[in-house]
Records
---
Amino acid sequence: ASISYDFNPKHSLGASYEFHRTPDFQLSDHSEYTVHADGEPTDRTNHSSQTLQQSSKHQLNAYYLGTLKQLQINFTADLVHGKNNEHQEAEEVSQTEGNRAISSFNRANNRLYAAKLILTHPLWKGELKTGADYTFIRREDHFLNLQNILPNTDSRIDESKTAAFTEYSLPIGEVNLLAGLRYEHTISDYWEQSEFVPEQSRTYNDWCPSFSIDFPLGKTQANLSYTVKSNRPNFFQLRSTLSYNNRFIYEGGNPLLTPETNHDVQFTTLYRWMQFSLNYQYRRNAIAFMTKEYDQNPDVVIFTTG
């Protein structure tokens, strides 16, 4: 559902609401595998699981667009509330280890509040764009395994981010210049079992510059750009819960992840319908998929990020 109203050609506002619901999404898995030790088969296991997932999400957005003389105003605000429930029943039949049943319940609540203001005004021969934005995100994760094979968790993450940015574009003949700078201040707090955990709570201060130039190169049009962006791990990657794939493989998140910083240099040329692009990217503290040994059982491997 959405509504908008134009007061006149210079002022308008609107809002929209969306509701998403997945009442019953079921997954079934049946597999059979052989266990080898030192190159010799030692066991044969049948694995079956049934997973029920349910989710709902409310999303509200509002905006205002206005012009005061030469000043352009762009304001947006978002509110998102979501819930996810997952129930898994798994059973393994092993020739040497016997039968094993695994029952797990996971409930996650998410909320987001965000607002952004952008002001644009002519300056000298170019255009100045400046603004600020604020985001608050909370995720609550509750996980219960009845057999205590996987650790039970009750965690909460609060993240608030405040940012200010400015950007200036300047055309000089056939050359267009663009330069910008963004500053972000982020506070991320972590709770486990309703107790604050300072080791997993962090504060970040990031400067993210950007530069771009468009220019003719003979009969082609060329662009050279450099940007720095901060990429923080999402809540799914930060989750503290473990899911059971089979007796030897678990899957989970990593609440100790730190943000990665991306430095991106790109050169592009365009001639008629042909395009040539050369890109170099450097990622510091890169967030990547990895496997590691489970601390409580060296025979188990955890699929995670690091």
---
Amino acid sequence: MAKVLVFIDNPGAALKKSSLELLTIARSLGETVAAVNGELHDDVASTLAAYGTQALYRPSAADLDDYLVGPKAAFLAAAADAAGAGVVLAENSAEGKEIAARLGIRLGAGVITDVVAVDPDGTAHKSVLAGSYTTTAKATSPVSVLTVKPNSVTPEPAVTGTAPESITVQVPDVTAAAARVTARTEKPASGRPDLSEARIVVAGGRGVDGNFGPLEELADALGAAIGASRAATDAGWIGHDAQIGQTGKTVAPQLY
């Protein structure tokens, strides 16, 4: 059975819905294994087992987050080689797509982004042109790398699950040529869902004339995320992390 490697970056105390979706898709393609960067909490390990993960690949280096994506791509390439993976799945975020591109070069793999569904034979369905069309693509290389949009499938745990084997992979030292993160500022928690994963999004632009208060009240009433146009973020009415679009975040809500 083909090995399908799912990349999970800094899962925190609980796996995100988008990660559960990747694990669900992976089971439909073959035997699921996961490459996990960052601290691995017991609840996360239990969830990985419940979703059919057979093995966990962990980096030998603990400082991958001190750099930008280069070392993460190196770790994922080493994990894919160690697992003998034929498919690698990652999130369709800006960082996820950059890691996928670097991974494609390292593995000589075909890379397909903006995926919304994957057939059992590896054919990927892509949402393109702002969702106006769905196209199909399939890599002809021995390894394919797919980045999947959130809210593409309904997460479903495996029928049976056992504790996955933990395997440490040696990460090549690429830090000399990697950009180092020099400082971080913690973003205040809003209590709203993450914009890229939200099933409901309340968005505003020039029409709010600088006042996002009513939109925030509506979003809180609906359990929604707040989004904005580039004009609104450029005007300083709301943070750039709320921007939706080609130069912002990709969203896939059921209600917008």
